[in-house]
Amino acid sequence: MTAALSAAVAGIGETEFTKESGKSDLRLNLEACRLALTDAGLKASDIDGIIIPTVIGATTEDLTTNLGIEDVSYHAAVVMGGAGPVAALKHAKLAVETGRARNVLVSYGFNGRSGARLGRKPPQVMFGEAPTFRRNYEGVHGLLLPAQYYALWAQRYMFEHGWATTEPFAHVAVVQSEHAVMNDKAVGAKAITVADHQASRMISHPFRLYDCSRETDGGAAYIVSACDPDDQDAVVIRAASEGHPGQADQSTTRKEFMRTGMAAAGKRTFTEAGWAPADVDFAELYDAFTFNVLWQLEDLGFCEPGGAAQFVQDGNTRVGGRLPVNTHGGLLSQAHLWGINHITEAVKQLRRTAGEAQVPGARRGLVTGSGDLGDAAVALLERGK
Amino acid sequence: MEPYSKPLPKPTRIDKPYWEGLSRHELLVQRCDDCRVFQWYPREMCSNCTSFSLSWTPVSPDGTLYSFTTQHHSTGFKFDQDLPYTVALVQLSDVPELRLVGYFDNAEADPVRIGMPVEGVFVNATSEVTFLHFRPARNDPERKS
Description:
Chain A is of the alpha/beta class.
């Protein structure tokens, strides 16, 4: 029996993360792709697979035309919102492991701050071109922005667990702000305190400003390739899966309001790898809002239901703690790049090039993506064999 | 009266009876003729048994508050004139398995709390469109105002 191919993240690239790039979305993609190619030691013509991770940003045609790629043998586009970049990792892994492609490129680039900032102009993503159910039964009542949808979940969670304050959210924000200060891509990051969080202005109750992620202009890309089984430095994609909620399209009406696809995705991924949560050295969790970190710590089995708040407050998610979480500052404090920056950060951690926030001896990392109000993807990455 | 400037629905072939019901100040939801299960929001088929036989069934618009969020930041829509305003997620009394989103009127009258009884209010937005809003129930024993 021949050994199955293993897929590894062979290259990563990140543009500058700014408030106003002055560049097109496509340019951000192309810069990130070029950096990822250089990092992987590949030429553009070596790319024979492309996965488009989100509905915004560059298309396969944009990338092949500009990069001068004459043909690809494998292409797909993922429509899972912020779960896309991690779901794309799963697609790329499968394409490489089955020999359908040798080098798969995944790119994201978007002016998320200067171009499409929510609340600045009517949000097309959530409402303008939204499906009928979102417009006719939610949007017309003023339920329009992601912060509001997640606030409904957070509010219910707080009720079910008997919380009197939002301080547990503050602890998430504080930890990640401290990580961002250690990260050279998080330009202008500053460490905040619980009091800063509690004094920050209300956005969508119970979410305050520091519960919300940092809208950013920027791009990042990664390349997945078959890896040399003897390469001890390879960042191998050990497992990657997705999960979806019941009644997937509209979050508010689901039979089980608090069930997204995350728990199922996590279970599938851990089973595929043969690992348990305790085997993971760090986790990069999709954090559009502070609450999402607590929710996922429980859904993924790192904490008992209702236990995540204490887990974070006790310092476990800090670099140096039991399970460092969002070591780059995450979407909250580094950059909201639809979570592709969680993947690049995980790769840096496993390469031991994560700078000040390096988790000592990092060998196994977990990355999540979450989007479209409940779709989820989880990947487990491992250094070497 | 000023013309209504907030987002309006685009009724579809499927949900037209729902909007017509609201115009008569009646809440209609789909119920499957075969398995008798209710569903919200309106769909092509019964999501419980794949039947295409669905009947529009009147139900009470009253319920309990399941969750809510109060919006303080601009949404980019005319709702901004109401800031802060509250959106309610309501579990229907008649059909507790269904939850509806609605604008929450009189949110300032009482502390908004999950589990509080709410009642439906039919609000005529334009000559053609009526919305179902919610407000604190008059019979709430814990109501202060």
